[in-house]
Amino acid sequence: MPAYLLDTDVIVASRKGVAAPAGVADFFERVEPEARYVPVQVIAQLRAGIQCSWRREAALEALALEGWLEAVLAEYAPRLLEFDLDCALVCARLHGRGHAHGVDGQIAAMGIAYGLTVVSGRLDSFAAQGLRLENPFNRGLLR
Questions:
Q1: 106: Cβ–Cβ under 8 A, 6 or more apart, which residues?
Q2: For residue range 41-96, what is the model confidence (pLDDT) as tens digits?
Q3: How far apart are CA 7 and CA 27, in angstroms?
Q4: What is the fold, at CATH topology level, of the domain defined by 4-141?
Q5: DSSP string, 47-80
Q6: Contact yes or no for 68/49 (Cβ under 8 A)
Q7: CA gyration radius for the chain?
Q8: Band of the pLDDT at 139, cuts 50, 70, 90?
Q9: What is the SS3 assignment for 128?
């Protein structure tokens, strides 16, 4: 069974439930929860976004997002993936080829190291050799 590594934009879009873009909703209906993984970097990005809401003094929004993030953590707890040594070595190889820097580079490396298809609406950020990509916003497997 294929397995998938979800980028931040896909997790955020899924928050909209039935109002999510059609391709995103289809992805979550088509792919079993056990085949969906989240890199810890995505959790950091989500937490950072919530912190920005608190700084803007948007307390109601921040509280709603806190509850949502807790639900995400509970749902994905057994499928949160860490950036380990294998990922670091793949990331270094990608970086040496001029591909994928920063968090996107780490997520790309995780996709390769764990053998997962990276799911994102920003596929240009993940243009790396040997990486399987899917854009649920455009409904398609690209590599």
A1: 39, 41, 83, 87, 91
A2: 999 999 999 988 877 777 888 888 999 999 999 999 999 999 999 999 999 999 88
A3: 13
A4: Rossmann fold (3.40.50)
A5: HHHHHHHHHTT-HHHHHHHHHHHHHHHHHHGGGE
A6: no
A7: 15
A8: low
A9: coil
What percent of the chain shows pLDDT beyond 90?
A: 69
Which of 87, 100, 80 minimizes the C-alpha distance to 39?
80
Q: Return the axis-axis angle of helices 59-76 and 40-55, rounded to nearest 10°.
A: 170
The whole-model pTM stands at 0.90
User: Is a pLDDT exceeding 70 seen at residue 138?
Assistant: yes
Q: Are 24 and 13 in contact, with CB atoms under 8 Å apart? A: yes
Q: Residue 109 corresponds to which tokens in the numbers above?
A: 């490396």
The two structure tokens encoding residue 103: 């968090």
d(CA 63, CA 87) in angstroms, rounded, equals 34
From the CB of residue 2, how many other CB atoms can be counted at a distance below 10 Å? Answer: 11
Task: State CA 101 to chain mean position distance.
Answer: 16
Which amino acid is it at 30? Answer: R
What is the residue whose two structure tokens read 């970086």? 95
